Amino acid sequence: MHDIGRVTVPARIWAKPGPLSRDEREQVRLHAYHSERVLDAAAALRPLARLAGSHGERCDGSGYHRGARAADLPPAAWLLAAADSYHAMREARPYLAMREARPYRAALSPAAAADALAAEVRAGRLPAGAVNAVLAAAGEDRVPPVRPAGLSDRECEVLALLARGLATKQIARQLSISPKTCDHHIQSVYAKAGVSSRAAATMFALENGLAGADVPLASERD
After folding, report:
1. Domains in the chain, start-ordered, CATH in brackets?
2. 188 alpha-carbon distance from chain centroid
């Protein structure tokens, strides 16, 4: 139901093979708003309205229709955004990107669509957890887990332990690195994730599926 607002956009715009004008692009972006309004008008569907209207959002604020950022929406909204993107890439259609309208193109292969979604994660526009869930549901096993915000594997390990409440020295001991090196990794995580506190970093880890037990604690190994 998330695309029900498409009916408010003239068919000539959806079928236009070339780039859209600024006004046409704005009409396309507003279809998410209209989806939300239509669902909000029906009492039984009202709980889905905000979720449906968020399918065009992106974590960096470049999406539509509110320009929401990562922390503004629940995981379900980002899962829908990732699924909607993958579905659009797998269809033969004029591809309407966030910043431009591209000419009509053939459907992307599953592998190409997976690569395109992975690029969205690296660019900070979609959460890694949501994208990995969509790719897994699509049976696309070729693509390895996508790391958000350009984090390295080591930085993801540090973040996972930080999100589980470990202090810097405990994380360093767990990963057999010096506290100074560990703090360097933590500061790098902060910079890449755009956060400035452990609480915000923990939220980032939760949103991107990085708060699990990828690095087991010593007590768990024992």
Report:
1. 4-137 (1.10.3210.10), 151-221 (1.10.10.10)
2. 21
